[in-house]
Fold these 4 entries.
Entry 1:
Amino acid sequence: MRNEKLFYRDFEIDSRAINKEKRSVELSFSSEEPVSRWGASEILLHGEGNVDLSRLKKMGSALLNHNANIIVGRITEARLEDKKGKAIIVFDDDEDGNRAMKKVESGSLKGVSVGYMINKAREVRVDEEWEGYKGPAYIATRWTPYEISLTPIPADATVGVGRSLEGIEIERTEVPNTKPEESTMEEKDVQRIVETALEKERAALPGLIATAVKDAMAEENKPKMRITVEQFDDLSNRASAISPEAELEVSKLARSGKTEVEIQKYLLDLRTGKADAGNTTKGTEGEQGKKVTDEDRAKLVRSLKSPRVAFAS
């Protein structure tokens, strides 16, 4: 009867490895071939530091069908070779041993099954890779073979699927903590960040106005315009030297059908203080806007002394 605490894997005896004179057979009892277990691949590594062969070497006995009461021989050698576990079994000269030897020679008993325990394993998750192995997988980095049995029919390699991983030391790749840290900023720090963001918004206002103006000059608005695009750019440049509000007012005048001369007069009135940046005169749209400050007027005077684009003659 099988030990329910062990896992099992099965192999086949090569008839060429039977030595009748020595009453022995050399066989493979383990490999790195993946076996399906726990919904993933189970892989037994076969490096010198991965397999503990001491139990097989000191207490190794060959059983029949994993029955501890039917010992058919002794294990005289256990080793690792070509990423496989190999052993030599010498049959006992008794009823059980002789019967097992004859069945191995005839080929009616040619299955090999190893019972083993995993001590330490590396979990490789889906989409991960470790040492050339892709997940999902459990890679046994430390395991111990407990017994080798001769079996007439190879057992199901998935035995133990329903068992838990309890008792096995599992190594996992650490997943970075993606949870955002709680804010420890004081109220004054938050206020400073808000003010900085507002300053950036104010700085971007002229560009936003220019974009809005260009959108307003779409195909459906062109019939209302009485100035060319070049004239509009010229007037907008002059207005932007005053304030964003003045630039926006120039766009309103242009869209309402004002001529270049009329818009120039509006800008000149701003220079002399006769008009407000947000109030176009009675003949425009009659909207009351923000008053132009002394600083705005000073900027206008400086811009007119050294304008970016000269007034048309």
Note: Residues 187-305 form one domain.
Entry 2:
Amino acid sequence: MTIRLTVKAQDDQNYTVRCTFYDENDAVILVGRIASILWTLTDNHGTVVNGRLNVAPAIANPLDIVLSGEDTDFDNGPERLLSVTVLYDALTMTKEVLFWIEDPSAPLTFKDFMADDLAAFFNVDEFAEEITYTPTGGVAIVVGDIVEAEQNQVMTGARTSRIGSIYIRGSEVASPGYRDSVTINGTVWRVIQVPGSAEAGVWKLGIQRDERPTL
């Protein structure tokens, strides 16, 4: 069975693959039972990359295999297969790990920018401010957040209100819901729009306050 890693390696950067070896009873194999470990790195054509053929690391379990330089050079192809063979108790076990290398020429996405700027984005000493978010029937929690500029009063049938939007980390609010309560600087807002998923781990929620009948 081939294990497919979802986190891509960066071009020419260090990439660590942690391997934990289990015996036929699903128990972690003690180091004293292991006679040898060999690993080989190939590209998507089966060609050995950077001379990494039957490399013999110091025996450890778990074992961290650190790849770098030519190992993760995108010019050598976007795909890598790491094959690890363990000899223990006179038995041989081989595991394969498949991963990909990020194309350095690919344009940056919103997710890339968010990953780089997330710490500053949610830092209360820079852009963010503390708010109280109360899920329906839940307990109030405090999160760092940003409130976008409010839009003018809007008409919705026979009612009017003021609307805006906020950004909240998915780690703070896993499942925001319609009509959840958001308190910002003492003013209570209600969530009126929830996207289908959190982009780069961040929810952008539409909020509303001062809802009242149109006079």
Note: The longest helix spans residues 110-121.
Entry 3:
Amino acid sequence: MIFLQELAGMGDLGGMGPEALIAAFAAYAAIASIIGLILWIYMSLAYMAIGKKAGLSMPGLAWIPGIGPLIITFQAAKMHWWPWLLLIGMVIPFVNVIANIAFTVYVVIWSWKMFEAINKPGWWAILLLIPVLNLIMIGIAAWSKN
């Protein structure tokens, strides 16, 4: 083990053995998982409330991990379905960059229309591109009174 540390140029690692590194990584992974779960619950509740405000028939779709909020945004915007085909392009090398940018543009457009559908300013969709502000704006849109 010492040979591998010296070979990698890490030396003694400050007295931390591999067990301590594994424990530190496990603690980080546990904390990140808990934070991720809390954010998923918050966003699902918020998008479900937005779906109810927009009069959608199945606002519970917000609980689908990953794409649930996008489905609510898409349905509330009452836009065409074909931009979802861009997701296929995201698995093709070199095309994935263009498909990802194009899909992001459509998500912003859908968000703009979604905010207008629940009587909020459409320009709030631009603010969703800022991560922490995203959480605040979605919460305001979901639980504020019209």
Note: Helices lie at 2-8, 18-53, 68-77, 86-89, 95-117, 124-127, 131-143.
Entry 4:
Amino acid sequence: MEVEKARSQLDRADPRWQEHITLLAGDVRDDALPDQVAQFVPDGARCFVVEDSAHRHHTTLAALEGFSRFGRPGGFFIVEDGCVDVEGMRLGKDWHPRKRWPRGVIPAISDWLAGPGHDFVVRRIWSCTG
């Protein structure tokens, strides 16, 4: 994430944003990042985690493994853009001539749910796979 870009957008939206928001720069694949985030999450907090990284298997799985502890109990863990793995929902070839949509979100979710995430409840109504 480009922290400086986020900072400037937040400055425009709310000059007092720093009273309630902390920005951390990091790589979702870094095992130390979840512990850094934990320092800012109060004990007993019910969190709403949104994973919107590179939409590839390794980044989605790393986010689920590292940050799922913030999505329980009574919280949510949303994984964005599983549509990259659904052929009928993928952007066409014309969306950007030099970029290709990645793949791997849905397989990463399936792998995680079959292992450490087995006790999470999938809200199918929000899922692009039904």
Note: The longest helix spans residues 3-13.
